[in-house]
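Data card: per-record layout.
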Amino acid sequence: MKLKKGQVSNLVFLVVIVVILFTPVGTAVKVWVNRFIAFSPGIIDADDRKLLTDYNWRLEDAVTGDIENLEQMKGEVVLVNLWATWCPPCIAEMPSMQALYDSYGDKVNFLFVTSDKKASVENFMSEHKYTFPVYYERSSIPAELFSRSIPATYLIDKEGRIVIDKTGAADWNSQQVRDQLDFLLKQ
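The structure for this 187-residue chain is written out next.
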């Protein structure tokens, strides 16, 4: 049976879709697309910012095993990123997160929180040479930081107001984010 021209093109299209959705090649394509469309996250207007009311969130440091609590960071600037090693938008934004961490890691509390297996996280961090701190949840996340989608990133000011609430990939090393961090650190 000979295929018609339209059938061949449909078959090629189907194969491309299967490759993108179900193979590592597809993950690389999805990461590239997410990087291409990632823009600086928006800053929430001062009047519309939610207040973090519950700081009781226990986190385990992936390297040391130490338990930390968000409560210890009250009154400081905190950036929380919920992510996974298998998530293309998460992977896409990680280089900009690393660059931001390299510049502000000694001034801002960075919490990269995942539920992935420890071996997967260690391999991912090593493969990409990332140095930002990774944590595992050891208690329920505060309601204001809960998200059904990842990546989800929150920038919290010293008063506990959520200044940025971004779901999906973003360019975290943008001048807009850096200016906002500088402003928050001066307050």
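Known properties of this structure: The chain has five helices and seven strands. Helices lie at 5-22, 24-37, 88-104, 118-128, 175-186.

See the next section for split statistics.
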